[in-house]
Amino acid sequence: MANAIAIIGWVTLGLIISVAMRRPLVEMAAGAVVSLLRPFKAGDFVRFAAQVGLVEEIRFNRSLLRLPDNRRVYVRNSLLVRNNL
Questions:
Q1: Rounded mean pLDDT of 30-40?
Q2: What is the DSSP letter of 43?
Q3: What is the pTM of this model?
Q4: Would you state the pLDDT for residue 84?
Q5: CATH of 2-84 given 2.30.30.60, 2.40.10.350, 2.60.40.10, 3.40.50.1860
Q6: Are 46 and 73 a contacting pair, CB within 8 Å?
Q7: What are phi and psi of 8, to 5 degrees?
Q8: d(CA 5, CA 68)
């Protein structure tokens, strides 16, 4: 009986950790895609959601874009990769 409770506890802990790590892992994967495949580069115009922006800087987990109204925003690479590949 004690072994069954321990197993259930470890499975539950594993599920909690996997759910908590989902977003950071997705962001790391998107950063790897941007670094390796280079679907866009600084100076490119990209479309994401309902926005268009000029890529000014690319980092591992996010990119800096300049919007048409001259605002500068950081956008997660996972959003850009999903909308531009």
A1: 82
A2: T
A3: 0.67
A4: 59
A5: 2.30.30.60
A6: no
A7: -60, -40
A8: 57
